[in-house]
Amino acid sequence: YFISIAIKKKYQNQGLAKIALGESEKFFKKKRIFAYVFLKNKKSLSFFKSTGFRIFKTDTKYVCFEKLIK
Fold it and tell me: Do the Cβ atoms of 32 and 1 come closer than 8 Å?
């Protein structure tokens, strides 16, 4: 499964992305989820690292993160 989270600029930095991610993980028990993030998007790279995702693979434009939901 692939996940994408977008929060409108004026609502960022309020913890909403972590809430959205936490709620979505409830539907993916015992599944792997992935997120592709542009290498230039430092904020998203930091977010996925801080929420337990690990780097699965990288290429010249993207980092693919992976997380196993238990």
Answer: yes
pTM here?
A: 0.87
Would you say 70 and 29 are in contact if contact means Cβ atoms under 8 Å apart? yes
How buried is 20 (Cβ within 10 angstroms: 0-12 exposed, 13-18 middle, 19+ buried)? middle
As a whole number of angstroms, the distance between CA 14 and CA 69 comes to 24
pLDDT, tens digit, 9 for 90 and up, residues 14-65:
999 999 999 989 888 889 999 999 999 999 999 999 999 999 999 999 999 9
Report the greatest alpha carbon distance in the chain: 34
Write out the two tokens for 5: 């989270």
Angle at CA of residue 31, ends 26 and 37, nearest 5°: 90
